[in-house]
Amino acid sequence: MRRSRTGMHGGVGQAVESQGRGIETVRLPAWKMSEVNIAKRKEKCENCTKQCNKKQSDEGANSQQEKSDEVNGQMNEGSHVLLSACLSCDGCVSEEETLKISRQSLEELERALALNKKCDASKHKVVVASVCPQSLPFFAAKLGVEINEAANKLCGFLKSLGVKYVFDTTLAAGFSILESQKEFIQRYRRRHHDAHALPMFTSSCPGWIRYSECVLGSLVTPHICTARSPQQIMGCLVKDYFSKQQKLSPEKVYHVVVAPCFDKKLEAVREEFYNSLLETRDVDCVLTSGEIYYLMEKMKVSVDELDSVPLDQVLGDAGEGALVRHEGRGSEGFLEHVFKHAAKELFGLDVHEITYKSLRNRDFQEVTLERDGEILLQFAAIYGFRNIQTLVHRMKKGRVPYQLVEVLSCPGGCLSGRGQAETDSGGHVDKALVQMMEDTYSSLPVRLPEVNPTLYTLYQEWLQGQDSSEANTLLHTQVTDSAWTIPKPKTTLHYGPVREREVSVDLILPFGHKGVMVDHL
Q1: If you average pLDDT over residues 1-28, what whole number do you get?
Q2: Is 367 strand, coil or helix?
Q3: Which residues are 357's β-sheet partners?
Q4: CB-CB neighbours of 150 under 10 Å
């Protein structure tokens, strides 16, 4: 499939120098979060506001406009909600978190790389980058190359900046899938004497986890799978296993993740992923695909002159270099992997193909396993805030028939993450780009984590077995019920890379996507 090269500059300009030398004359753009001005128009979502215990008193002169935006209880196409406004709510992000998130920037990466060029070796760190597989189709589309070549070009670009190792996180996702499969079987078998065993909700999406903790509380949190997300397992893999292999202390490794989603920045700063003894995080910095591409454009990088460098392997030469994906239409396929595993483990049935049945829309689908007319398993995939709200309402009424629900905050799933799927003008999903990314992602061969020998090698070498205490500690975490208990003065945040956009700072909304539109109700 041919693709046009979009947005890349033809000349080299102040482009990438030879690999390993870094950038001497080009300063990385700051991309710092800045305060957001009061919006010209307030954008509200009544349904979301009702769920928050801190309703707004300032309705102002915009109430009539808001009413006109609502049609049959839903917001029309002109009304959107921004996470910039959501996270400025004084019940969501603390001052301390605000400072931590502000460090998730290109400026911070520049600072780490700059220290490596100074004479004081005590401040030098080995910079490691981990790239989410859902980011690679974005670079393939933008660079106009096939996905394997895009991965190599991206690797070459990052290493030219001074990054020492570049991995992809598919291996970490394999761990997360296997642990989720195991936990589902355990929950299913104790369903009759544990009211919180089922349904099990997936735990890979930080936007969903944040919303569950801050708003839904005990209604949902006991049902969330304890398996860590692929990002945070990759953090453990890099800071624990890989650093030991390189004979480095974890604090001497600076770990950057390239992801399609802004919410991953929030996940990286969670307290349970910080080692207070060593003063280091599993993931030091999360940059979106759009941020990295913006840097490429800013530096006037020529695609043709970028070195094509293969991705590194955690196990070195013993690892496999070919790009693969997991099942699923654009995320990590937790539903499909757990469904097939459960069908075999619990009922002795081999499921080769999964048929989705769309209910409300493409982002609300269910899968059913039947035998002799009896429903054995019923799973659902629910993406986007509007559909999540439907799930929550049904759960409150005790009308959730599913044993497992794969929940993702981004409509369309991870490929549609707002860190890479916006139009150039901003604010809307680039549907043509998303379709191209879906086609590219689906072209990768599927490999089940159950048959990945690298995973089993690491289970033994790194974790001392699949059921060890080490595996339980490093591959699992616990979601807590912290519904709106964080005190803080009001703070406004903005992730915007190039275009600053005005948003309402008085909106109470528990969930959304930073600096971009969210699925409106």
Answers
A1: 40
A2: strand
A3: 366
A4: 25
> Angle at CA 434, nearest 5°, toward 154 and 333?
85
- Do residues 228 and 477 touch, judged by C-beta distance below 8 A? yes
What does the alpha-carbon distance between residue 426 and residue 498 come to, in Å, rounded to a whole number? 10
Distance CA 218, CA 77 (A): 33
- Phi first, then psi, for residue 367 (nearest 5°) are -130, 135
Kind plus residue range of the DSSP H or E element containing 427? none
Per the CB < 8 A criterion, the answer to whether 400 and 419 are in contact is no
**Shortest CA distance to 170 belongs to which of 327, 3, 356, 378?**
327
By three-state DSSP, how is residue 93 classified? coil
Give the model confidence (pLDDT) of 160-214 as tens digits. Answer: 999 999 999 999 999 999 999 999 999 999 999 999 999 999 999 998 998 888 8
Provide the angle, in degrees to the nearest 10, between the axes of the packed helices 136-143 and 289-298. Answer: 30
Q: Does an H or E element contain 281, and which?
A: strand 280-281
List helix spans (H) across 223-262.
230-236, 243-245
Two structure tokens written together for 48: 């979301």
β pairing state of 374-383 and 364-371: antiparallel
The two tokens of residue 193 are: 């004497």
**pLDDT at position 317, please?**
65
At 107, which amino acid appears? E
Tokens of 402: 């599913």
For the chain, give the number of residues: 521
Which amino acid makes up residue 35?
E
Antiparallel, parallel or unpaired: β 357-361 and 364-371: antiparallel
CA angle 474, 403, 383 (to 5 degrees): 80
For residues 41 and 65, the answer to whether their CB atoms sit within 8 Å is: yes
Q: For residue 365, list its beta bridge partners.
A: 358, 381
Q: Report which DSSP code applies to 28.
A: P
DSSP single-letter state for residue 212: I
The tens digit of pLDDT for each residue in 89-103 reads 444 566 777 777 777
Give which of 42, 146, 177, 224 is closest to 475, Cα–Cα. 177
**Cβ-count burial of 368 within 10 angstroms (0-12 exposed, 13-18 middle, 19+ buried)?**
middle
CA within 13 Å, CB half, 113: 25
Helix and strand numbers (H, E) in the chain are 18, 13
Characterize the bridge pairing of strands 285-288 and 374-383.
Answer: unpaired
- Residue 288 forms beta bridges with which residues? 259
Q: Which two structure tokens, joined as six digits, stand for 416?
A: 């549609």
Helix, strand, coil shares of the chain as percentages rounded to 5?
A: 40, 15, 50
| Phi/psi of residue 508, nearest 5 degrees | -95, 110
Rounded to two decimals, what is the model's pTM?
0.78
Range from 38-52, 264-278, 433-447 carrying the lowest mean pLDDT: 38-52
Q: Work out the pLDDT band at 320, boundaries 50, 70, 90.
A: low
Phi and psi for 256 in degrees, rounded to 5? Answer: -110, 135
Report how far residue 373's alpha carbon sits from residue 367's, in angstroms, rounded to the nearest whole number. Answer: 15
Q: Residue 296 has which token pair?
A: 């490429």
